[in-house]
Design goal:
about 60 residues, mainly beta, four-stranded antiparallel β-sheet, about 0% helix, about 25% strand, globular, YjzC protein, YjzC
């Protein structure tokens, strides 16, 4: 079983890093001007600008 890659507002960051907003189907939904945040392990994810968005670690948030 793999590590979770998408996070909801209120979830705790599993690792330090830069996270950014992605669309609900991040594989093919690109977000214009996504929020980017730096979190430390255990920090809480803030609200997204749209209820259908989630947080994903920046290096894993590339659109394919």
């Amino acid at each position: 079983m793999g590590e979770q890659t998408e996070y909801e507002p209120g979830d705790k960051a599993p690792n330090p890093g830069i996270y950014m907003e992605v669309g609900e189907a991040s594989f093919h939904t690109e977000v214009n001007n996504p929020q980017k945040i730096r979190l430390e392990k255990g920090d809480t994810f803030p609200e997204t600008t749209n209820k259908n968005r989630k947080w994903k670690k920046k290096e894993k948030a590339r659109v394919h």
